[in-house]
Amino acid sequence: MDSLKDYITRIFTDHPYKIVISKPVGKTEAYKKIVIDQKDGYYQLAKYTDKQVFHENIKEDNLPARCLEFLEHSHLKLNAWTGDQEYSLSLSKKRKILFHAAKNASSEPIPWNPAHNLTKRYILEEGQVILPLVDMGIFTREGKVVKSMYDKYRQINRFIELIDDVVKKQNCEHLNIIDFGCGKSYLTFILYHYLTVIRKISVNMIGLDLKADVIGKCNAAALKYGYDNLRFELGDIKGFSCPFDVDMVISLHACDTATDYALYNAVSWNARMIFSVPCCQHELNKQISTDTFSLFTRYGIISERFCALMTDAIRANLLEYSGYSTQLLEFVDFEHTPKNILIRAIKSPGKPEKSRQKALKEAKVVIDEYRLSPTLYGLLAGERPTD
Questions:
Q1: Going residue by residue through the chain (387 aa), what tens digit of pLDDT does each one get?
Q2: Which segments of the chain belong to CATH 3.40.50.150?
Q3: 88, 96, 208, 299: which has the fewest Cβ within 10 Å?
Q4: How far apart are CA 138 and CA 92, in angstroms?
Q5: What are φ and ψ of residue 58, in 5° steps?
């Protein structure tokens, strides 16, 4: 039987870029969890107490022994992520070892290159001159990542990976795309670059927003970058009339029910792909009422978080009912806020009716129990709610 040391050695053979050590043995342990991130030539440990976090830098050669020390003396669980694998190593209270390795679904297998200061090969690689990334301060004019901006660099690549996982399977030659609530459009520009330059796909793309000054600046930037088939328009998501058949709908941080209108438009247009990061899910928190599960509504902060999660779970099921294969994925956004769920929905023409009806029934049970009137549910039922 393999020992703890054997498993840790196996994990580090794959050169993890992130490790989380958790489940302290007892309440008196100083550190509740330890988050370990790869940096430029070393690893950084962030050791969390109840009120503080302490940082420590360590060489890769010394890290396996340190992780082993934590698991032997103070903690019961270790998770690690590499380019193409996710590892889980845990101990029961009787010290039984449980080990699991699974393919990391969000990335492709990545060869280890010790000469490179990142273990992961990113889609937006260093060495490319990507003007939007230069203007954002993430790349230098030579195409190098600014050291202090590695976290944002990784986050942007994470967003592109979540789209790339789908696009590379679609064999697309042309895509018509709407970006609802585009704002300053940093990710709009990056997505356009990825699709046209890296994937070599012909793209016709519109960014929509309510702020006239933002639209003007974005159109000027698109002209500067030479993005000929990307334009920005002033308009409301509700009732927006699209000038072409839509293949992909993007909605990043559209506030509260604006996300519902974006999703409804996508479904109405029979869009093949939907990528939505919801924000400010206040609607259900104003409506929720239940006698059976009043525990979830008694405490304000619990009710707020519960309603935010319930909102997106209902949205996901309604998309399933509408004929999409839907996932809720962790997405680390750029302001480091808790709004980190991405709804990824792919049109599935052959989706069985039984499966669709089950998804609708599950959503309806929750809606009835908590006496809710979600906007997306009303829109799909043909009832446009008033604000």
A1: 578 999 999 998 888 889 999 999 988 888 999 999 887 778 899 998 888 888 898 988 899 999 999 999 999 999 998 877 889 999 988 889 999 988 765 444 444 444 444 446 788 888 888 889 988 888 888 888 888 788 888 888 888 999 998 998 888 899 999 999 888 888 899 999 999 999 999 999 999 998 898 899 999 999 999 999 999 999 899 888 888 999 999 998 888 889 999 999 999 999 999 999 888 888 998 999 999 999 998 998 999 989 999 999 999 999 999 999 999 988 764 444 456 789 999 999 888 999 999 999 999 999 999 999 999 999 998 754 444
A2: 135-380
A3: 96
A4: 43
A5: -145, 145
Residue type, 381: A
Task: Report if pTM > 0.85.
Answer: no
Specify the amino acid at residue 299.
Y
